[in-house]
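User: Can you write out an input/output pair for a complex, sequences first and structure second?

Assistant: Here is one pair. Inputs:
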Amino acid sequence: MAELRGSFGDQPHHILTSEFGTTDLHKLSVYESKGGYTALRKALLDMAPADITNEVKTSGLRGRGGAGFATGTKWSFINRDAPGPKYVVVNADESEPGTAKDRYIMENCPHMVVEGILIAAYAVGANQAWVYIRGEYDEPHRMLTEAIAEARAKGYIGPRPFGKDFPLDIRLYRGHGAYICGEETALLESLEGKRAQPRSRPPFPAVKGAWGRPTLLNNVETLATVPAIINMGGAEYAKLGTAKNPGTRLLTVSGNVRKPGVYEVEIGKTFRHVIMELAGGPPEGRKVKVFWPGGSSAPVLPESMLDMTTDAEALAAAKSMGGSGGVIVMDDSHCIVKAAHRLLQFYAHESCGKCTPCRIGQDWAVRTYERILAGEGSQVELDTLQRVSDGLQNGRCLCGLGDSGGWVIDSTLRHFREEYEDHALRHTCNVGKVAVSA
Amino acid sequence: MKLSTHVLEEIKELPAKYPQPRSAVMPALDLAQEELGYLTPETMTEVAEALHLDPGYVEGVATFYTLFHLEPIGKHRFYVCTNLSCMIRGAYEIVDHVKRQIGVERSDQVSADGLFSFEEVECLGACEYAPMMRLDHRYHYDLTAEKIDQLIAERRAPVPSPRRGEGQGEGLKRSPTPLTPTLSPKGEREKKPRAPRKKKSDG
């Protein structure tokens, strides 16, 4: 395996990664020697399903995939007593630019994911779980495949895990290259063998999800956190982080930093701590210009906002979000207009085509950026960008992909107006400028 | 190019593995692409017939996802991430170098020896190792021009040398079986151009 980059090992406030770096942690025997599968045993033998869900509610855990919905609440939406099959579907389609933490977990500790899935499945009354894993993740797929085989051989997956009369099964399904599959209803469409276009809600997946059945959808990191919550207790977990956004989460720090990596951070620490201390700050002689706090879809924050904390409430107040925890750092040697152009190319490419504002708008923005970067811009182009951005946002599209492109335009325009005007009005690029407003 | 009988048999067994048979369409296209290298309309029709689906439906699925190839690709395809985290660490320089070294300009071209093609792709989820790429079902990290040269040289060598690099190590060994679809030997592609796709209206 590649050299691990980030924070791991026995350090304060490491919940998920405290054993990362241990030789052969991906093997069941090693995972068990570190206390693995005790949470599953406890959940199956000592806890009623509703108690498990309540424990997760008490922990205050919020989904780590991007939307940040309360996990325990989501679990409680599934009617455990409804007749017929129910499913847990695991979103392992990690594709948000700047986010690598699910890969990191699956490669290093696949059994932690497996254990979390099994606990969740028992809690919501699902006998079968499907892991939808992005097609490019060959290594994580292999690690999960092996972990599932080991757990099956041990009987943890099978008709009577730990002697409990509740059959559990986990299957893998590979994606084939489509960012939109990270959106939960698009993922379900894809799992059902269709073009991945989001569904309109209601019905919500908890009522009518995979193959028309009640379905719990959770992100890899979310489920990987569950064994720790069962072991330490929800109340203890909730002491970490902030009151409304408890716990730790894995932040992928990438871009212009000296030590890019996946860092487990207690929620509520500042981005200055994460970027400047943990990740070592920008290269020698450079300054942080801007950062995306939660994947490319999270509106940018300029250097002046490095003291922003990593919790959802603080970020929302700054018109951004914690998203997927992908912290992309760009230094003052890079042009914000070119960066925004590249991201709009991404959203245009990944638009599934279902909603007109997204299908047309992202592409329109790309063409406008092209004119600006070719030195053919004017006030018209700047106005067009703002108008397209507005047209992409605020519920005009079925899913968040539309908004995401709009947020890139809107937030970069808001914080770096002068740089846009340099390009569009004065046809120059003065890279090196810092944000003109906060 | 027809799918071999054993692949068709394998495809016919897929639907039973899923709660509903339609879910088998992507795994089936995978098997087809693994055998033939890319998906032609004829292949998609074969897959559709094996799964009792409409050929247009199967083509609709295949054209939605970027990992299904509708044109011939090289035996080794460089999937180079150029999204933001990699871009600001030199990804486009890596793309330019790959293009120069394998002698192609665009992602729909294949090197003269049939060995290589490339594609710029979106974030591959290994941003802490940027710039990075996927090649032969493996991630390659901290790319430099020298690393690219080495990877190309290893694949041009008549006897494949043991793969080196940081993508994986002990504990993660995989057999050196061919991981990319095996294409026809050099020259055969010219002899057997894929049938022109019928232009069809959308929906």
